[in-house]
Specification:
Blueprint (H helix, E strand, L loop, with lengths): L14 H33 L5 H4 L2 H30 L6 E8 L2 E6 L6 E4 L21 E4 L4 E7 L4 E5 L4 E5 L5 E5 L5 E6 L12 E7 L1 H14 L1
Parallel strand pairs: 1-5, 4-10
Antiparallel strand pairs: 1-2, 2-3, 5-8, 6-7, 9-10
Helix pairs in contact: 1-3
Cofactor: Cu cation
InterPro entries: CcO_II, CcO_II-like_C, CcO_II_C, Copper_CuA, Cupredoxin, Cyt_c_oxidase_su2, Cyt_c_oxidase_su2_TM_dom, Cyt_c_oxidase_su2_TM_sf
Subcellular location: Mitochondrion inner membrane
């Protein structure tokens, strides 16, 4: 999860987020090189007293500064489109979960089970135990098996919400009357935090998302226990 004074993105917990991190570094390096080159030209033009007559009117330079930006844009666009299609790809999910946004909590329904669903509310500050995070912890976590394709169906019951977990590279709008879907694979066990990312009313800041990835055996034990309690 994010920490104080963090400058970069969160550590990736899914293959798609790893691709997004690599693309971020790729694009940032291109921007850095362009900025350095432009700054160097500005400094040279301001500081020098000499004038090169071949730079004042040159077809070759005009060709270069027309083609070069086009090549740079292609180098950015191609990997961007590749990741865009990867994020939309949903192949044979092992588990489907429906996440419904409410004012101001989330409810989860495991559609592959007959009667497995629950509401997820933020834990109030006075009820937190040592080790839990303020404004991020919930009374019920969305538990998923690690290294398995998970499909999430996202919708809302009242107003616009947004289901977002940065470490998994997932962010999807929850729109009333519309069912959106996304997929992710958790590459390692852990607890991953997110929050509603669409202004949805007075308590918008108080409807966190907690995804807990566990080994398959632990997930089966958890689901059996939840079905017994239901």
């Amino acid at each position: 999860m994010a920490h104080a004074a963090q400058l970069g993105l969160q550590d990736a917990a899914s293959p798609v987020m790893e691709e997004l991190l690599h693309f971020h570094d790729h694009a940032l390096m291109i921007v850095f090189l362009i900025s350095t080159f432009v700054l160097y030209i500005i400094v040279c033009m301001v500081s020098t007293k000499l004038t090169n007559k071949f730079i004042l009117d040159s077809q070759e330079i005009e060709i270069v500064w027309t083609i070069l930006p086009a090549v740079i844009l292609i180098l950015i666009a191609l990997p961007s489109l590749r990741i865009l299609y990867l994020m939309d790809e949903i192949n044979d999910p092992h588990l489907t979960i429906k996440a419904m946004g409410h004012q101001w909590y989330w409810s989860y329904e495991y559609t592959d089970y007959q009667d497995l669903g629950f509401d997820s509310y933020m834990v109030p500050t006075q009820d937190l135990i040592p080790g839990q995070f303020r404004l991020l912890e919930t009374d019920h976590r969305m538990v998923v098996p690690m290294e398995s394709p998970i499909r999430v169906l996202v919708s809302a019951e009242d107003v616009l919400h947004s289901w977002a977990v940065p470490a998994l590279g997932v962010k999807l709008d929850a729109v009333p009357g519309r069912l959106n879907q996304t997929a992710f694979i958790t590459a390692r066990p852990g607890v991953f935090y997110g929050q509603c990312s669409e202004i949805c009313g007075a308590n918008h800041s108080f409807m966190p998302i907690v995804v807990e990835a566990v080994p398959l055996k632990h997930f089966e034990d958890w689901s059996a226990l939840m079905l017994e309690d239901a």
